[in-house]
Each structure stands twice: as structure tokens, then as C-alpha cells.
Amino acid sequence: INQDDHRVTYHVDQSMDFQLKPTAKLNGAKDTSSRHVVPRNGMTSLLSWHNGNDCHMSNGMLYRDGRLTVPLDGMYFIYGQLEVSFDKHNNDNNTSGQYQVEMTKSNIFYGEHTLFRYSVPDVVFLSPATSSIDVCIASTVRLRAQDELYIRVSDTENLYNPANNFIGAYML
């Protein structure tokens, strides 16, 4: 076993080496009273994730203050899911008429960039039969070492059952 630069390489025999790649999955915290948010550019970062059952972080992935940090340059599959409810209020705080979820990356050297944004269509807000939906976001992106990934939303009041939410990433 050789561990250099967060890479774990196992030597099986003279002809075969394989590398364990960084991977992480965190669930939403059950205790919403501990969730702190920081509004920025009309979007609010989700800061409270839980590393417990059905979760993992391995091979150099780090978690701090709502952000997953990748240890190595490379292609990653990143994903998240939020359970969003529209019966708590009538979307009064969202002037665009749409609920927005975005995955953002930040790096102290390269700044902050929105990787992708999903807007829940207006029709969902108008449908009386719909009280909550799962918003799933995912993409394959090139990341640099020390890039931090996090989810931002247009309105935290619409989040429903935070324990069902999750964020994750793994190197391809």
C-alpha cells in the first residue's frame, strides 16, 4: 500500500496496480435548527450535511461548512437531491416565479463559479395536487484539486424533510 498526495495505490502483483478514487456522499442533517445559511447573490448556501448511515467520504475527500472539497484534479460526477415543498407559502419570497437550485464550485485561487442551475417550472407552483417534489441535479465536470462543491437554493423555506436531501461526488 502506497499513500502519496491523497492517492491510495494497491500493488496486487507485478502487472496490476489500481487506484482508489475520491468519493463522497452526505445526507441532509435531520436537525434543521442547526442549519445556518449565508445569502449571496439571491441564493442561499446549504451548510448542514450529515455524515452518517448511507454516507461515506473516502480517499481524500473532505467536508467542512457545507462544502465538499476534492483532493485531486480530474473529471468528477457530482450530484445532489433536495426535497422541495410548495405548500408552506405561496412563493412570496421568490420574485422570479421559479424555485432555483444550483451546484457551485469555489476555489481560493480561481474564484466561484456556478456549475449548473435548475429552475423548477412555474407549472409546479400552480398545481394544487403537487405539495412536494424531489429536485435532482447532476453533471460530469472537470475539477481542480481543492475545488469546493456546495448547493445553493433561492429559498430555504421551501426545503422539506432535510434528512431526505443529499450531495455527492466521485472521481471518474
UniProtKB/TrEMBL annotation:
Organism, scientific name: Pinctada imbricata (Atlantic pearl-oyster)
Source organism phylogeny: Eukaryota, Metazoa, Spiralia, Lophotrochozoa, Mollusca
GO molecular function: cytokine activity; tumor necrosis factor receptor binding
Protein family according to the UniProt entry: Belongs to the tumor necrosis factor family.
Gene Ontology biological-process entries: immune response
Protein name as catalogued: THD domain-containing protein
SUPFAM superfamilies recorded: TNF-like (SSF49842)
Cellular localisation: Membrane
GO cellular component: extracellular space; membrane
Keywords: Cytokine, Membrane
Main location: membrane
Taxonomy, superkingdom: Eukaryota
Keyword Membrane set for record: yes
Residues covered by the THD domain: 22-172
InterPro entries (alphabetical): TNF_dom, Tumour_necrosis_fac-like_dom
